[in-house]
Amino acid sequence: MTDRVTVHVHEGVADVRLNRPDKLNALDLATFEALAETGDALAADPSVRAVVLSGEGRAFCAGLDFANFAAMAGDAPSGGGSGGSGSGGQRFKRLPADITDREPGRITNLGQQAVHTWHELPQPVIAAVHGHALGGGLQIALGADIRIVAPDAKLSVLEIRWGLVPDMTGTAALLRLVGEDVAKELTFTGRMVGGDEAVRLGLATRTAADPRAAATDLAREIAGRSPDAIRAAKRLLNRAAEGGDLAGQYLEESRELGALRGSPNQAEAVRAYFEKREAAFTDPA
After folding, report:
1. Which one of 105, 147, 160, 176 is separated from 120 by 20 to 30 angstroms, measured CA to CA?
2. What is the Cα 16 distance to its own chain's centre?
3. pLDDT tens figures, 86-142
4. pTM of structure
5. Which positions are catalytic?
């Protein structure tokens, strides 16, 4: 990992922060790489039970830093763009010329993996959004399981400003969260959405005056639950949200429950409840 992303783990909660505050955490290649590497590292750490994803400084993430990529059509302004597109002649400096090429062993290119990593992470991920979350920055937030936003935050599917489309898994996430018509309106217009409207539309889960503090409190609560059950719940909910067939979904519910029932952490959850004490769960193998 690089200094583009910082990670601190305390009592099962990983505090992950985009760390380019002088650029409003605008996305460059090093940031994409750091995000993907961070996701891989957290997935391999059984002591991590929940993740809080936020940005240092005045913004969550202002989008793509065009200064770090080849010019698209003349000089492009920095910030607010999409993360992984190669449309209009744009190319990452060290990425394959064809952005349809996938990362080895993955369904994503690097820009997409910087977002998809939070969706596929076995632990719950809570995005704490303040300031701007624009273009690729919004897509990173959409990759989280839960989004807590400041009331005065500004969110936008801003790619249309540059003649682009969301290309960091954003099209799929928008449909899941806000429905087809709202997804199209936001994508076609690129209009700014405040925190309260984001909640009404489904872009965000709830607002908080201090999103990072609220996200951390929630992460600590989740970290106190059985990590086996939490991971199973995320797998099941992800599968359902991705449109799996009902018969397969119901069968998978039964399989997950069968694996949990009678397990050490499940038994501990029951004992702790009746003994009116904090549960002492073991980390997943």
Report:
1. 160
2. 11
3. 333 333 444 555 788 899 999 999 999 999 999 999 999 999 999 999 999 999 999
4. 0.88
5. 159
